[in-house]
Structure formats: C-alpha cells, structure tokens
Write a structure and sequence with these properties.
alpha+beta, five-stranded mixed β-sheet, 4 helices, 10 strands, 32% helix
C-alpha cells in the first residue's frame, strides 16, 4: 500500500516524511478493510432482510454481537494508529532540534500574497524588525539603525536550504491567516496573526535547482491562487555559495 500510495504523493524529501507516509498508508488500509467489510454487510443485509423473505416484522432484531466487536476492533486499531504512529511523529516534528546539531534558523513571513524569507547574517542574529518600516523595498521591516541587521538577507518567494541540515522555520504573518505548505517536506502549518510558530524538519534530498513549490493552503483573499513560492535544497557547499552570492549583491 505504501509503495502504491507514494506514486500519487509528491516525492518525500524530509527525514520525518517516511513516518508520515507509513501512517497514511495504514489509515488507507483501515479504510479499505472497512469499505469491503461494510460493503459485504450491506449486500448481506439487503438479501437476508428483504421483504419477501421476512413478510412479518421481527421486533427483536439481530441478537449477534458481531457489530459490537467489530466497532471495538476498529477503535483499537485507531488507538494504535494514534498512540503508536501519530503522536510519536507529531512529537518529533514539534520538538526543537538540539543546539549541537546547529540547525539553520530562517524566518518566513506570509502576506497577501507572497512569502518573505529572512536569513540572519554571519553573526547569526536577526536584525530588529519594525512594522512601520515595511514597504516594497523593505518587506520584513528591517531597522537600518540596528547593526545586527546590516548583514541580514531577505528574499521574496524564494526559500533556499542546505541538504542534511536541520532547519527551523519561524513562521509568522503580516496580515491574515495563511498556511505554509511544503508538500515534499510533509510540512503544513498555519501562520497566525500575532504569533511566531516554529516548524522543524530536515531536508534529505536536493532538487538540482528546480524549485519545489511553497503553497498557501489557507484561503487568504482574492489573490490566494498566486501566493506561490519556491524551495531550493542545495547540495553540500551549495547553500554557502548561494549565501555568498546574496551578500555580494547586497554589497
């Protein structure tokens, strides 16, 4: 089932994606079994309890406990899925990366209708941002008087990451609710006004310069359809080279 399912899914490029795909496959197995069992039961009920075979109503009803035990079995299976797969996968996804793994921290700020990406400079410190300073030339509102922001790098709709390095995206929004969706990373998280929400994952595959889609999965206005960004995962050394190019452009 997993192999068949993955043919229809975007390629998995994250360390935690396999666990999510396996859980999705198990859910589909459960649904397939229930579909067959209840379909057979429906046909049997139509034949066994048809009017011609039962001209006189039986008010005692079915005395078998098959349906009860069936419901208990389904409930147990769902508990196993929840406790054995869903909760551990969720816990790994929301647990911050250990500092010794040197995760890359990136800010992603949604707006109608774009994704603003903010990288800290060589000092590893994000510059102060001020909402009043946001304009087309300063989409994240960097304060020019803050020395920590002098080496920061910003992009619009372009998220660049290194392969095999843990990543923490600090997600926020300027205006309405958006949903940050990276299908190949098996990541989807709402951006809530007034909050900064961390998202943790590790890219394990590169895309050779062909950007993977960053989608907004929450209807956010008339231009929602065009709120689309691109994710590039660089091979070893490629991300540092890209950062150097951005610094050179900034001067």
């Amino acid at each position: 089932m997993l192999g068949l399912l993955q043919r229809w899914l975007p390629p998995n490029a994250s360390a935690h994606g396999q666990a999510l795909d396996e859980m999705t496959a198990l859910v589909h197995w459960l649904m397939a079994i229930l579909f067959v069992v209840w379909g057979v039961f429906f046909v049997v009920a139509l034949i066994k309890f048809r009017a011609k075979a039962n001209p006189k109503a039986d008010y005692a009803g079915v005395k078998s406990h098959f349906s009860t035990w069936g419901e208990v079995g389904v409930a147990i299976f769902e508990v196993v899925l929840l406790v054995g797969f869903a909760i551990p996968a969720w816990a790994r996804w929301v647990t911050p990366h250990p500092e010794e793994e040197a995760p890359l921290v990136v800010r992603v700020i949604g707006e109608q209708f774009a994704w603003n990406v903010h990288y800290a400079g060589d000092d590893g410190v994000f510059g102060r941002t001020v909402p009043e300073l946001v304009d087309p030339t300063n989409p994240v509102g960097l304060d020019p008087e803050d020395p920590a922001g002098a080496d920061d790098i910003t992009t619009i709709n372009q998220l660049h990451l290194p392969v095999n390095r843990p990543v923490t995206v600090r997600l926020s929004t300027k205006d309405v609710i958006h949903s940050f969706s990276l299908p190949v990373m098996r990541v989807k998280q709402d951006a809530i006004p007034g909050q900064e929400i961390p998202v943790h994952f590790t890219p394990i595959a590169t895309n050779d310069g062909e950007g993977w889609e960053i989608a907004c999965a929450q209807l956010c206005g008339l231009g929602h359809y065009r709120m689309r960004g691109y994710l590039t995962v660089h091979p070893e050394g490629g991300f540092e080279a890209w950062l150097a190019q951005q610094k050179a452009k900034k001067g």
